């Protein structure tokens, strides 16, 4: 790949969401990794190339940006089946975790290899738009994160992965833009892919955007079409700890092992038989567990809303976004109806809420890419 390809990647706690090129390819992978050996056992290895690569991501990652280099991982769905699977923990900084980079590199490599799977070594160049929680950006951690990505070539080697076994992808970044997550949510709310205003009702309103993630919550305060950096806040409070508590209580009470937090989310949000699991073949309610734990978390999230609204009394509406907002929507609505009755909004289209960050990064990095290319063309003509 000689030409730089656009990539917009949201490394969320639950999953990575990515948009590539001319928005011609999307990718979603559970944010789970597990350390592994080079020769993972595969039943029916001769059928390996008939399977979906996303179900068997098995890679070795070489990068100076990693604290632990040249490590072999199972990634995504394959990792959820491992006893040693790891997910990001409460209190960890996304910008400083190897797991964030491993997921980022794996996602990019999966895009690069689709078009060039007949080559044994692929050189891929990307113009990347991604983001970090507001708290980390305010602490200046975006600078180091960006520089680690830009400073070297990062290699992903596919090991026992369907269709891609033995292929190495060398990833290089032409440019990296790291956006604060709350600002990105605002961009996605009011602008289209060309950054034209599509929501004039919102553009000049004073609004809050409460983005509830797995490990953190960001509240962006929007005034005069800009994020108020001084009033925007990030909190170490997400849904991950509560999902883990539900998972543990289901294991203790019902003897049912769930592979990952994603399984818990599915139980809570599925359209049919919500809050039910199968125990020894019988449909069993876990409403008592999920309601108690999630209502407790919703109260903490509502307290955040109340405190920030009091400090920004002329706010007109607060939008709840992110995967956590989907999980807590019913509880937050119930609390708001019985307590303060703020003007709050949710996205009924769950995909829109979950993909909001990735879509926003795509709009921002595409705009940068277009402007940068125009400038280069102008300079070439002037020469």
Describe, in plain words, how this protein is organized in 3D.
The protein has 383 residues and is an alpha+beta fold. The chain has a domain at 5-179: Nucleotidyltransferase, domain 5. The chain is built from twelve helices and 17 strands. It has helices at 77-80, 98-115, 134-138, 141-150, 181-190, 200-203, 240-254, 261-269, 287-311, 323-338, 350-354, 356-382; strands at residues 5-11, 15-20, 25-30, 33-35, 57-62, 71-75, 121-132, 154-158, 168-180, 207-212, 217-223, 226-227, 233-235, 276-279, 282-285, 317-321, 344-345. A nine-stranded mixed sheet has the order 3-2-1-7-9-8-5-6-4, with helices on both faces. Strands 10, 11, 12, 13, 16 and 17 form a six-stranded mixed sheet that branches. β11 and β12 (226-227) form a beta hairpin. α7 packs antiparallel against α9 (287-311) and α9 crosses α10 (323-338). The longest helix is centred in the last third of the chain and has 27 residues, at 356-382. The radius of gyration is 22 Å and the shape is globular. The mean pLDDT is 88.
Give the oligomeric state of the chains in this entry, treating copies of one chain as homo and distinct chains as hetero: single chain
Q: What is the first-to-last residue Cα distance?
A: 26 Å
| Largest beta-sheet details | 9 strands, mixed
Residue share in helices? 25-40%
Biggest sheet: strand arrangement: 3-2-1-7-9-8-5-6-4
Outline the low-pLDDT stretches: none
Q: Determine the mean pLDDT.
A: 88
**Could you give me the name of the CATH homologous superfamily of the domain at 5-179?**
ATPase, nucleotide binding domain
- Helices and strands: which structural class? alpha+beta
Helix tally? 12
Strand coverage percent: 25-35%
Cα-atom radius of gyration: 22 Å
CATH architecture classification of the domain at 5-179:
2-Layer Sandwich
> What is the name of the CATH topology of the domain at 5-179?
Nucleotidyltransferase, domain 5
How many β-strand stretches?
17
